[in-house]
Amino acid sequence: MSSPYLLVTTCCLFATLGSFLFGYDAGVISTVIDQETFKRRFHNPSDAATGGIVASYNGGAIIGSLLVSYLSDPWGRRPVLFVGGLLATLGAALQAGAVNVAMLIAGRLIAGLSVGLMSSTIPVYCSELSPPRIRSFLGSLQQWMIGLGAVVAQWVGYGCSLRTGNFTWTFPLAFQAVPAVILSCGIWFLPESPRWLIEQGRSDEGRSTLTRLHASNTPLIETEYTQIITSIAEERHRAPRTWRALLFSSATWRHRILLACGMQAFTQCSGTNIISTYNPSLYRSLGLSEKTSLMIQGIWGALAQFWNTVFIILFIERLPRRTLLLPSLLGMGATMCVEAALGQAYHNFTTGPDNHQHPPATSVRAAIALFFVFSLFYTSLGLISWLYQSEIFPTAIRARGASVATATNWSLNLIFAQCTPIARSRMGFNYFYCFAAFNWAAAALVWVAYPETAGRSLEEAEHVFDRKEPRTERGHRGHELESQHDTKGGLVTVSTEVSATPPPT
């Protein structure tokens, strides 16, 4: 990593420990709820109780993501992350020490509350720290760390499944406290968002933070500082004071909120969380053992994380958002459709086509392989969903806009988590046809309604919604700013083209 980007990358990477916690918390429950020791400890919970254990986490996350709109603007970004870490530690302790389902649900609820706070705040914090040239790269760290957390959860769960007794489920749940404590202790060593500081009237501190983050690029510091000051001055007189004003006083704000909420809805309606949460039980329904199911789940998560890494390095800075999203959504729809068709052909893999024999092993392997193919197609949507919502709002409403969008994500997550055990038991693999339709509908909406934001500074991205522009136009000015530097007192323009080079490593 070249020195101009080392500090800002380090700050964003540390902040996304909260995203790691998000992924771990979401992934660990899938390795726990199918353990025999867990079932015995909680007296074989019913489908409804299992859905409640999973859904309580999502319910807490909805509350947390909505609270961000009241905390992040007056407090700042760092205090919200600190509180999130403390709550996550408490939630982990309650879950690991649970003596009944009610206590487990309470722990999941508090853990969800912490993740709701952090999942809304981290994309905003990273985007407000990032220079335009590597904002896509740094914004993608949220999804990358979510994926890493899920992988760690899956392999911790698999490793613990090789042991006996309550350790098989208590240790994975207790481990949530480790990243939470590290985040809470270390967050005060990171700089506060310069845009938040300037908006609070602390312009000198904001400028000092920009200088610290971009020390070797004086033209970028000056131009970005001027853009922020100008943008905040324009926003201040029309900044909404109430939710009613936010949603109904400005058509452009309402438009942005709908786009951000829609993008988060696409992720939940893709089916990815259904696969990641209930994959072990899906594999068990295909006739695989508990340990084999957990091992395959771990491999699935590791491969998904590999795709995340490849896309961040090779594509996220080079290709427009829409170019990445459309194949992603179409591919996921096709994968889900074929998965459902296989399940239908083999009667949910309980018998063969003639209803008198077990399904061929090849059909079971094909069903598992399709989940792996799905992970490839999901990569673009997963990376861009968090990045897009952090780019399209002005500073005055960025925290509240991200809050509403993230609450949409968790609300749908809650619905699917609660309904999926029941839907799976009644519909079998036909359930996946629903997600095929959702993905194809999302692709049509992206094509029709979503403007391009790649390659622009945050202040320039705001103007996409304030004037008529082709949806596919890619920004240039943000990269142009970073192509200038001081050389022996002279300002030299290196290039005015959008760089096709991936972020420095």
TrEMBL record:
Chief location: membrane
Location of region: Disordered: 462-505
Keyword Transmembrane attached: yes
Subcellular compartments: Membrane
CC annotations in GO: membrane
InterPro entries: MFS_dom, MFS_sugar_transport-like, MFS_Sugar_Transporters, MFS_trans_sf, Sugar/inositol_transpt, Sugar_transporter_CS
Major facilitator superfamily (MFS) profile domain location: 11-454
Keywords on record: Membrane, Transmembrane, Transmembrane helix, Transport
One Gene Ontology molecular-function label: carbohydrate:proton symporter activity
Basic and acidic residues composition bias: residue spans: 462-488
UniProt keyword Membrane, yes or no: yes
Protein family: Belongs to the major facilitator superfamily. Sugar transporter (TC 2.A.1.1) family.
PANTHER family: MAJOR FACILITATOR SUPERFAMILY (MFS) PROFILE DOMAIN-CONTAINING PROTEIN, PLASTIDIC GLUCOSE TRANSPORTER 4
Protein name: High-affinity hexose transporter
Annotated source species: Aspergillus homomorphus (strain CBS 101889)
Taxonomic lineage of the native organism: Eukaryota, Fungi, Dikarya, Ascomycota, Pezizomycotina
